Amino acid sequence: MADEERNDQEQEQPEAEATEAEEQPQEAPAEVAADTPAEEEGADAPADEPQPDEAAAEEAAPEQDAAEESGGEEPAAEESGDEEPAEEPTPKQRRKLERSRATEPARPPRGSEERAAERAERRSSAAASRRRSRARRREKRGEPKAGTPPAEREAAKQKVRQGTVVSSAAAKTISVRLEITRRHRTYEKVVRRSSTVHAHDERDEASEGDIVRVVETRPLSRTKRWRLLEIVERAR
What we know:
By secondary structure, this protein is an alpha+beta fold. The chain is built from 6 helices and 5 strands.
């Protein structure tokens, strides 16, 4: 029994030594890591912490992505917005610039009479130049050519109608009923129509019931556009 216990103890000792040997190499890296300087630890540690350059790149990445999505239009818009279009100077501003750039010596101050005399002289010289240019143009054109002669105007034929006097109560005015009988174009039926006009009777010759002939004339009043031409037949 004692021999068996000894054998078991001897077997357990090599196993314990082997386990201790296996555990020692695992602790060795910790001691080596403890002996390494802080600079080497800083070189291995940034695997988790980003460097300054990397952080800046990461911050700029969203901006670059946004620029790519917009197609690069924003920078162009900013550049175009910075350049303002040059405004053309007005005639008054242009004259001021010409005066400021003039190299001639300044003239002495003048009074209102002297200014008026200079203005009149400038106007007279401009009028003389205009007259000369117009005379040259007339010489180039020569004598005026005869244009198209005006068309001869033919007087419109006055309408003449025959009707019956229905009223002669007003002074120098008679009412004449004009009857028109025509055949219809489409239906070939005889259509009779009548209209009443006011005619001017200067001598009050016509009476009610007379058959008269009237002629169209200029407006004599608000309603009179006809004049008595002759009496065809007296009323019975």
